[in-house]
Amino acid sequence: MLKRLFLTTIATLLFAFQFNISSANAAELSESIRTVNLNDQGEKIVLSLKQVKQGQRVFVDKCTYCHKAGLTKTNPNVGLGAEALANAEPAKDNIAGIVEYLKNPVTYDGETEIYELHPNTTRSDLYPMMRNLTEEEMESVAGYILIQPELRGTMWGGGKVYN
Ligand code: HEC
Question: What is the mean pLDDT of residues 116-128?
Answer without folding.
Answer: 97
